[in-house]
Amino acid sequence: MANEQQPGLVTSRPPGLVDLLDRILDKGLVIVGDIKVSLANVELLTLQIRLLICSIEKAEEIGINWWRFDPNLTVPAPVTDGQNDKAQERLPAPEPEQDRLDVPMPAAAGEEKTGATRRAGS
Predict the structure, then answer these.
(1) Helix and strand tally (H, E) in the chain?
(2) Are strands 102-104 and 117-119 parallel, antiparallel or unpaired?
(3) SS3 for 59?
(4) Among positive and negative, which fits the CA dihedral 113, 117, 120, 122?
(5) Taking Cα atoms as reference points, which of 63, 120, 69, 66 lies closest to residue 97?
(6) How far, in Å, are 76, 77, 119 from residue 88 at the CA level?
(7) Given this model, what pLDDT does residue 114 score?
(8) How much is the average pLDDT of 112-117?
(9) Which parts of this chain are annotated as the region Disordered (predicted)?
(10) Which of 28, 72, 104, 114 lies 20 to 30 Å from 95 when distance is taken between CA atoms?
């Protein structure tokens, strides 16, 4: 009976990966570091690392929203009606259409010529 758990007792377990990620995305995680590479007291390379891991909602809450304005990540806005109107004003007015032209019908072999005409496109 030593192996049986008593009802009402809460067993604690270490947080899993999902719990850890949920907490990081909810609260945020900041990693800051500097890496310097030097040779004979001459600094050759310096890397300054600033890493913020959080959810988009949390980033917007703290005032970070650079992805909204990055041209590599955003799609251009569609042309609005006002822009179309301005473009239409710059175009010349279309010429009036002529519905159909009256074209004289050629007489078939053996037929008399009459004043019949046929419509273009028919």
Answers:
(1) 3, 4
(2) antiparallel
(3) helix
(4) negative
(5) 120
(6) 21, 19, 33
(7) 55
(8) 55
(9) 75-122
(10) 104
